[in-house]
Structures are given as structure tokens and as C-alpha cells.
Amino acid sequence: MINKCLALLLSGFLILPAFAAQHVAVHPRPSMTDDEQQVIREIVDMERQAKEASLHRDADFPQKTLAEDYVAITPLGTVTTKQDTLSARKSGQLRYDSINVTDMVVRVYGDTAVVTARADVRGRQLGEDFSGPYRYTRVWVRRDGHWQTVSYQATVTQ
To answer: Is residue 13 within 8 Å of residue 153, measured between CB atoms?
Structure first.
């Protein structure tokens, strides 16, 4: 039971992961277009909104931004879906006290953006502390003019 709870907890972390980064880096390419720069600004803003939604236990943001075929891999290796993530958020048993995102890098590939970052998180689920440092990768895809997360993976770090 505790492993299932921890998996759901960490699936909640999956949608937060995105945050108002203190440092955003772009691996420079000689020909980065204005459009690519605009996409990076949009993705950084989506990450900021995801962080705020996690801190305020807002289930509407992930409902709108997680793709129906969303899949996430928790730090324990559990595969979770959009429904798993929404259930963890709506239960109210998942609480984030703080999320500090640094070292964010956004790479753009047409209508796909890949975000990597570090997140120092403080929080609890079902009374269990899951605070600590994580690294994550999130994949955003633009569908019908809207950005959606299709994949997320988090790893506990030192």
C-alpha cells in the first residue's frame, strides 16, 4: 500500500516539475529563430504555471495540459498515467510546501520541446515526507495550437 501511495505521490510531482526556473539555459545554435525563442518563453511560462498549480493543489491545470496519452515514470520506476496523476492531485493528500527549480534547459524541435531541470522539493503525501533534490525531464508537444505534456520522468539525486 505504501509503495502505491508513494508512486501516486511521485506522479503528482510529475506535473509540478515544471516551475519558475531561476536559471533557464538555451544551448545556443547559430541559427536560433525568433519563433524558437518565443517557444522557449512559452514553455518556461508553462513550467511556471505547473509549479504554481502544484503548490496550490490545482487539478485544473494538469487536466488541461496533460495529454490523454501522457505517461510518467516516477523516481521509483512506476509508470503513471494522466488519470493517476489527476487522482493524486484531487485527493488532497499530496502537499507541496515548496518547489525550487534551477538549472532548467529548454530544447526546441519544431512542435516539441524538451525540458530538463533540477527541483528541490519539500512536501508530503499520506503523511510521508518526499522532500529532496530531483532531476527531471518533461516533453511538451504542441497539438492544435496548445502545449501538452506527453511524457515526464523524475530521478532522485544527491
So the answer is: no
In tens, the pLDDT along 22-78 reads 455 555 555 788 999 999 999 999 999 999 999 999 999 999 999 999 999 988 899
CATH number, domain of 15, equals 3.10.450.50
Q: What is the DSSP letter of 108?
A: E
The conformation of residue 46, written as its DSSP 8-state character, comes to: H
Cell match 545556443: residue?
A: 28
Q: How far is CA 77 from CA 31, 35, 120, in A?
A: 38, 36, 19
* Domain extent at residue 30: 2-156
Structure pTM? 0.82
Split into its structural domains, the chain has a count of 1
